[in-house]
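--- STAGE predict ---
source: upstream dedup step, 1 unique chain passed
mode: sequence only
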Amino acid sequence: MGDARLGSRLKEARISAGLTQQGLADKAGVSRKTINTVENGVFTPSTLLALELARALGVTVEDLFFLRD
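--- STAGE serialize ---
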C-alpha cells in the first residue's frame, strides 16, 4: 500500500526522459501496472525497485522520491 509520506517525481522524470509507462517498465524490468501504481502513489516501491527506476532514468533515487514533511 502507498505511504502518504512518500512524494514522487517519477511521472515527471519519465516524461522528461521521453518514455511511456511501458517504455520505463521495459527498461526497469517491471510491468506497466507497477509503474502506474508507483506514479499514482498506490504502491510504495521497494529499495531495489526505486534503484532500478532511477538507473533506468539516469537519475538518483532522491531525484525521484522524497519524504513529505
